[in-house]
Specification:
Shape: globular
Radius of gyration: 32 Å
CATH superfamily of the largest domain: Histidine kinase-like ATPase, C-terminal domain
Oligomer: single chain
Largest sheet: 8 strands, mixed
């Protein structure tokens, strides 16, 4: 009888292992970037094509490898980071399992060039599906260049599960952010399809954050710093006023490694309690330095989940430190000594001496004399002011004051309750409408119709507005350009400056730039479908621009909202599946009032 249990061939075992470590192009970028950091590089380039599906290349100026190490690096469980099992609990590097390069080589074509300081020439190694196809000498500068091509070429099923280039690029950018934010002392550049996305020079952490996410972030950050025997904590939290409805700017780093920790995240959010609205998420960039022996980072193949020995104490320290920083900020905003004071003035005015304004005094002016007496004109004599309280007052007849609500003329039948509901009497019912949800439904259908029919109505801005796009916003704008114009925005891109000359008629002028920022930062691009993307954008705009609870509406505005609402195709639920209105029957009211 033949045995049913057999040993898997090496290439199959490698492909299975790769599935745990390499899930998408972003996984490759993460592993290569971390290896470059561990190699001691102070300048790292990331180059991708087609969101990493065609090419992912990382070039560094680190210590490099010799001809022997370059072969061993691609063997399974080959590593320079650990020698014995105990080393797993005393790690200061990022990569240590010895699985990443072997896993990448099993599912792609890999070309590596590397040179050490002592080598006269560099070494080149080409691998395809775990098989070495060529090893030669090349002429490259000190450091390592690894190019990963045709990812998942031998696993078509895995390749078919990849998302659109837009979605995959977003994942690569996320991984790039995590490494770049952990190491502001390293210069990073990032190219996608030949275009530069990021150029991050060596800088302070505050400047690095602002360079990654946009210059406006520099003034949104509040420093956090604490040092105890258990942990050294530093970094920044984002001012409560800039909290967002979507997650994305929450970063925890432990010993310069990005981690995810719902438990520690709760420590931060609890410190913000009472300072941000429900449903909003605080932003933070917090860096923890702990004894490597007190954590276990080997509990997941991606190494983003960490187990702490003193988790409860860490929770208390982080929460207290964040609350302290928020308290200091509320009393006196922190001073930024790194800020360039010349940025406060236009360049042409930097060295200009201000002119004193001329002062003109009319020495003959007397407000209590003659025609200049302002008060004499404003105050009427007693006989006249008494009439202000008696004239033009008409008391309605008693029968008119007792007129039932249902008999009031149409213009007065609608009224606002608690600055939240619109109340409208019908023939035998009372209709209570949530004004926010009704307006969301109106705007959602308008925007969705504008996108699908490409007939968005636009209003010209008297003064064009401009906004500077971050690299990520710029990529999103390129993807959403047609939809943005279909909505009614009239825009012109000049480098990274977006000039806005027109906006949808439903968008107030004061909200134009904020609305566009919402679209470019908070849209989830997980779907490839144009309709799904249009649906997301219409919902985001409806939520951003709808009337809010607390907004007081005039009589005409209330009536217009009712008319527009009952012109919608769907009137039962909002775009977010929330009930819009309820009705109270006259018989139900009679029972409550008459017992």
């Amino acid at each position: 009888m033949s045995s049913r249990i057999t040993l898997l061939p090496d290439h199959v075992a490698n492909q299975i292992a790769a599935g745990e470590v390499i899930q998408r192009p972003a996984s490759v970028a993460k592993e290569l970037l971390e290896n470059a950091v561990d190699a001691g590089a102070n300048s790292i380039q990331l180059i991708i094509k087609d969101a990493g599906k065609t090419l992912i290349q990382v070039i560094d100026n680190g210590i490099g490898m010799d001809s022997t190490d370059i072969r061993l690096a691609f063997e399974r469980h080959a590593t320079s980071k650990i020698k014995v099992a105990e080393d797993l609990f005393d790690l200061a590097t990022k990569g240590f399992r010895g699985e990443a390069l072997a896993s990448i080589a099993a599912i792609a074509h890999v070309e590596t060039h590397t040179k050490t300081e002592n080598d006269e020439v560099s070494h080149c190694l080409k691998i395809e599906g775990s098989k070495v196809v060529e090893q030669t000498i090349s002429t490259q500068p000190q450091g390592t260049s690894i190019a990963v091509k045709r990812l998942f070429y031998n696993i078509p099923a895995r390749r078919n599960f990849l998302k659109s280039d837009t979605v995959e690029l977003r994942h690569v950018i996320d991984e790039f952010h995590r490494v770049a934010l952990a190491h502001p002392e390293i210069k990073f550049t990032f190219y996608n399809n030949g275009s530069e996305l990021f150029d991050l020079p060596v800088d302070s952490l505050r400047k690095r954050i602002a360079t990654v996410f946009g210059a406006k972030w520099e003034n949104q950050l509040v420093p956090v710093e604490e040092k105890t025997s258990l942990v050294g904590l530093n970094g920044f939290i984002v001012k409560p006023i800039f909290a967002k409805k979507t997650r994305g700017q929450q970063f925890f780093f432990v010993n310069n490694r990005f981690i995810k920790s719902p438990f520690l995240h709760h420590a931060v959010t609890s410190a913000f309690e009472g300072l941000i609205k429900p449903g909003f998420h605080p932003g933070y960039f917090l860096y923890l330095i702990v004894d490597p022996k007190s954590i276990d980072i080997n509990i997941h193949p991606t190494k983003t989940e960490v187990k702490f020995e003193e988790e409860q104490n860490l929770y208390a320290i982080i929460r207290a430190s964040v609350k302290h920083s928020l308290g200091v900020f509320q009393v006196a905003p922190p001073l930024d000594f790194d800020k360039d004071p010349t940025m406060d003035l236009p360049y042409a005015y930097k060295n200009r001496t201000p002119n004193l304004p001329p002062i003109e005094v009319d020495s003959s002016f007397n407000p209590f004399k003659g025609e200049g007496n302002l008060f004499a004109k404003k105050i009427a004599p007693p006989a006249q002011w008494e009439s202000l309280f008696t004239e033009n007052i008409v008391e309605p007849p008693i029968e008119e004051t007792l007129m039932p609500l249902l008999d009031v003329p149409q213009a007065s039948r609608v009224f606002q309750l608690f600055s939240k509901y619109i109340v409208c009497p019908l023939k035998s019912q009372l209709l209570l409408i949530n004004q926010t949800r009704a307006h969301q439904r109106i705007l959602y259908e308008r925007f969705l119709n504008a996108i699908t029919n490409r007939k968005g109505q636009s209003q010209q801005l008297l003064f064009p507005q401009t906004m500077t796009l971050s690299p990520l916003q710029l990529e999103h704008f390129k993807q959403l350009h047609d939809i943005i114009e279909d909505l009614g925005f009239q825009v012109n891109l000049l480098g990274q400056q977006l000039e806005i000359s027109g906006a949808p008629i439903s968008c107030p002028v004061s909200k134009v730039t904020n609305t566009l920022e919402t679209l470019l930062e908070e849209i989830d691009e997980s779907s490839d479908s144009h309709f799904s993307q249009a649906d997301q954008i219409a919902k985001a705009l409806a939520k951003a621009l709808a009337i809010k609870t607390g907004d007081v509406l005039q009589q005409e505005e209330q009536q217009a909202l009712i008319d527009d609402f009952f012109g919608c195709k769907e009137t039962v639920v909002s775009p977010f599946n929330r009930q819009i209105f309820i009705t109270l029957d006259k018989t139900e009211l009679d029972k409550k009032l008459n017992g």
